[in-house]
Structures are given as C-alpha cells and as structure tokens.
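Response to reviewer comment R2.3. The reviewers asked that we include at least one raw input/output pair. We reproduce the pair for Protein NATD1 here without editing.
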Amino acid sequence: MAQAAVPLNILEASCPIQVEHDRKRRQFTVRLNGCHDKAVLLYEYVGKRIVDLQHTEVPDAYRGRGIAKHLAKAALDFVVEEDLKAHLTCWYIQKYVKENPLPQYLEHLQS
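Raw output as returned:
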C-alpha cells in the first residue's frame, strides 16, 4: 500500500522532535513517521579530541521544518559537553553556527 501524505504533526507539541545519539555509529538521528524514515547527522573522530561533523541529511518530504537545526544543536552540544574540538565539513552546520554564534560553540571550533 502506497503511503499518502507525510504527517504534518512532526513538529507539533504532541510529537516533539527527539534527537537520538548513537555513539557506536557516530550519528545523531531523528525518527520520522514512526520508524520508516529518519534524518541523520554523521560525524567521525579525526583526532583524539577532534570530531568532524561531516554530513546532515533530512529526507526531501521533511525539509524546511527545522529538523536539521535540532540535529546540529544536538551535535554541537555534544562537542561542548565532551570538551571536544569540531571541524565543520557539513555546509549546514557551518550555516547553523553562523546563525547561532554562541560563545560555547565558537570556542570549540577547530581553527
């Protein structure tokens, strides 16, 4: 059976966005539409205390709803909490930091 429309309640209070962190797979995810779809932010350790935030992907049907913003915030909060340095390969995270130049983020960016 084909799926009709994507539910619009993904950002409603009854269905808040929950970011999950899978340290083994080095990714942050948001489950969409139950378990069928997911948005993901991938990272890799490129040094003992340096992570490369490499790629953020949100399925086309869910773009423009602020989901990538939640992934970026979770990843940057992780970098701050773990006192790591971040290299920003992902263009979206670069954009997020420019739009949210919080001191705790800026001081954890790799120069």
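The helical segments are 67-81, 91-99, 103-106. The chain is about 25% helix and 30% strand. Further pairs are available on request from the corresponding author.
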